[in-house]
Amino acid sequence: MLKTTAHVRALTPDDLPDLHRLLDRDPLVNLFVRNRVDSTKLQARWLGGQVWGYFEDGSLVSACHAGANLVPVEATPAALSAFAERVLADNIRPSSVVGPRDVVIPFWALLEPRWGPARSPRLSQPFMTMARDSRVAPDPRVRPVLIDEFDVLYPASVAMFTEEVGVDPEAGSRSGYRARVAQLISQGWSFAIIEDGRVLFKTEVGAATRDACQLQGVYVHPDLRGRGLAVPALAAVVRQVRQTVAPVVTLYVNDHNTAARRTYERVGFEQTTTFASILL
């Protein structure tokens, strides 16, 4: 019996056709990595990390985004072992490991003995999608945020991130987080209800491809929670992003956040798979 020859290496622009075919096996689940690949063309100066490929007998079988986030793509058990070896050998320490639950959990099992306990393991996150407008009447106040409203939006963004992730986004690089918020506004990917200089609701598109986009950072002002604001507001966001960004809208949410899950279900989102996130 012939032995399979396998290896891992950083992918280059020459590998884009093969990588696109791999990502297209599940364009919704692989949306984040496809967005990074499309926006950087695997140019190292823009990527801020690498995308590794796992090859068997010269064919690309699996991939892994290795930057601030570790995100495996169509990863086989053999690929996960090879990626884990590469991560540990290169002394990479990302902020999270994210992806389908059935891949992230065994991947983390290979890394945890060296890295120690995770700061926040989120092992069951429904991945939800929507390919139509909501049947809920949209809130007409929702609109794209203007760049001159940055100073109004920014505190709400910091509050949301701190509440959701459990760390202050300004702790590492205040300028980096400010730049990211400004970038999303400039792209037309930030949506909010702003009244009298106060953000009542906001969310943004964190990543998008020609097939789909992913919402993140859903926030309702604490004084207004539990009053039914989020459902019509998100219905408005879904309608607007389907018209201007991509036809399918996705998101993922912590399983224990029953209030958020019910909100998304009322809007019309349906769970299609389960993600997991290991926050380090």
TrEMBL record:
Q: Which keywords annotate this record? A: Transferase
Record field: transmembrane: none
A Pfam match is: FR47
Start and end residues of each N-acetyltransferase domain: 140-280
The record's GO molecular-function terms, alphabetically, read: acyltransferase activity, transferring groups other than amino-acyl groups
PANTHER family hit by this protein: GCN5-RELATED N-ACETYLTRANSFERASE, N-ACETYLTRANSFERASE
Identification of the protein by name = GNAT family N-acetyltransferase
